[in-house]
Amino acid sequence: MKLLGLTGAPGMGKSTIAKMLAKRGISVLDTDELARRVVEPGQPAWNELRAVFGDEILARDSGGQIRRDQLARIVFDDLDARRALEEIVHPRIRELWVSEVEHWRMEKLEIGLIVIPLLFETGAEDQFDATICAACSKSTQVKRLISRGWSDSEVNRRCRAQLPIEERMELSEYVIWTEGTLEVSEGQLSRILSLERISN
């Protein structure tokens, strides 16, 4: 099985590319969904996060769900806090997606893709046959995130906490430049899939 990893900074088109792949019948797993799953109330990570960050990160009216916005405000302004969060959450997320990949292999899938925003930051690149970076200009990224309701300060905090897009692009085997139309992105994606299947 050919295993691809998709990364990119917030607002640069990861979700759009993932949806394109899913429409083609390719198995796609987004680790953002796994991140939500591992911090559900009662899960080990939930207990550890509560112990480290206190009850202020819990929503009072939703059964103790983690307030991701509140947790983000804490960790993106404090490097030690962010490292503590990552040490709790990242190994559990990795365990889940690695398990899913093994399931795909048993099913003898031709190709699968894992979306990992922090692919290189977590040292996961060796697990993939190829890595793809969704990228766009900084100005387009900011416009997209502002349209989602992000504040300027939130955009800046999140971007500072991750690898610069130039470094992600350099580390990746492929880059899909999402500045243009969906059709242009589709064309780039088709080229990548063609190359990967030829080399398989």
Summarize the structure.
54% of the residues lie in helices and 12% in strands. It has 200 residues and is α/β, with parallel strands linked by helices.
Overview of the structural elements:
The chain has 9 helices and 5 strands. With 200 residues, the protein is α/β, with parallel strands linked by helices. It has a single domain, classed as Rossmann fold, CATH 3.40.50. It is globular and about 50 Å long. The model has no long low-confidence stretch (mean pLDDT 91).
CATH architecture descriptor text: 3-Layer(aba) Sandwich
The helical percent reads: 40-55%
Describe the strand arrangement of the main beta sheet, using strand numbers.
Answer: 2-3-1-4-5
Helix run count: 9
Secondary structure category: alpha/beta
Number of strands: 5
Order of helices and strands: EHEHHHHEEHHHEH
Major sheet: 5 strands, parallel
The stretches of 5 or more residues where confidence is low (pLDDT under 50) are: none
In the residues, how many domains can be counted?
A: 1
Under CATH at level 1, the class stands as Alpha Beta
**What share of residues are in beta strands?**
5-15%
Shape: globular
Radius of gyration: 17 Å
Please state the average pLDDT score. Answer: 91
Find the CATH superfamily: P-loop containing nucleotide triphosphate hydrolases
Distance from N terminus to C terminus (CA atoms, Å) equals 8 Å
Task: Give the CATH topology.
Answer: Rossmann fold
Query: Which oligomeric state applies?
Result: single chain
